[in-house]
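Suppose a colleague, Dr. K., hands you the sequence of a protein chain of 495 amino acids and asks what its three-dimensional shape might be. Before reaching for any lab equipment, you can write down a predicted structure in token form. Begin with the sequence itself:
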Amino acid sequence: MSDHQGLEVKKVSKSYGSAKVLNEVSFEVKPGEVVALLGENGAGKSTISSIIAGSVNHDSGSMTWKGEDYNPSSPGHAINKGIGLIHQETRLLKELSVAENVFVGRLITKKGVVDFKTMNSLASEQLKRLGLEISPNQLVKNLKMSAQQQIEIAKALTLNSELLILDEPTSSLGESETNFLFDKIRQLKKEGVSFIYISHRLEEIEKIADKIIVLRDGNLVSSYDNANIPINKIVHDMVGRDVDRIFPKIENNSEIETLRVENLNSFDGSFENINFSIKKGEIFGIAGLVGAGRTELVRAICGADTISSGKIFVESREISINSPQEAIKNGIVMVPEDRKSLGLLLNQSNSQNISIANFDIFLKTGWVSPKEIKQFSQKGIDLMGVKGNTEQNANELSGGNQQKLLISKWVSRNPKILIFDEPTRGIDVGARHSIYQVMKNLSEKGISIIVVSSDLEEVVGLSHKMLILSRGIQKNILINDESISRVEIMKQATN
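The predicted structure, expressed as tokens, is then:
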């Protein structure tokens, strides 16, 4: 027994076969405290979170919660004890309504019948607390990623959890939604709720955490009793070396136009009257808050969403794009925001993931040759430096390597225009650096790149030019030079 009223983790270890993923990790989380849990992909953050949340058993060590021995046998057991985990990848049932998702597994009934009225009312209340004005009757599949992530958080709040593990809670959120969430966390802290906060956005940590712990290769390498720690120091702890966080210098002097968009209007009013052009090898950023119409704009350009009017030109030739297939034929490809559900076949091999979109490129005879598929895929893996072999399944790769695999699938087609929607979402600082290097190499090969990111530093750091969107309206196109002001960009984006 312990007199500690929060969570105590004592010398917890975990191995999968011969691979030790956690090695005698110890830390504590007091009531009303936010502990930032940091580390690269594969450092052990997800494993320790899953052990605390009851979905994975530890091999050795012990835990106490509110002064009593704690060894949850299932996530349900942990939830009943007041501990909940909000995953980075949303676990929502897309065909059900918002309210049904918030109360899934514990539907409210009245006289044996589901009480939708009460559920809708309670769900609405939690969503409003998070600043999300959506109908509880709406189907989850029709919502954007940022809204889906907030529903996950609302779901946990209705459980009256006393310890919440937040895994990358802001990875799909813009600045205003992130600030809403931080306000909510501060409010809940005053009520005694504690948090384990996992994030790759290191600049957030100082704003929200009380303590920092850093894992590397399954070991606890550092622990700080405040969050006022220089980012370079944290990065060094995470990766064991200094990492250049500066974006690579990407030169571009081309005058050859690859893409031009004239008076583009969406079918559903997400954006209107968009005009811009991109040169060969140029990186074109799209900045704006979540909900500004950024993703809808790039989805329209790559044929995933319908436009009501406007023109698209590739290499000065007007083209008609009514489907992703037509966009691909014209050299426009897109790496989507949600790589797991929209980009990769997770239970298929790396080889199948790369080749499936490219049969028309290398299978000229119409016959599927395993040898040709393997050779083509190996080339793609080598091209992007994916740490994995052709036969491995995509779900066995880290987040950074999954992203590289997805990029290699499309780069193998040698496209003219490559669109990245949130290119480093959920990727650690070391892997981010290699994705930026990939973008530099592609730009230097003459591939034009469009970057959409909720991380303003990323858009400014990578782009030659930037389009600023606010509520679907084009505010400005800025040439990126030394004089560019992030404050000015945010002003225009919020106007």
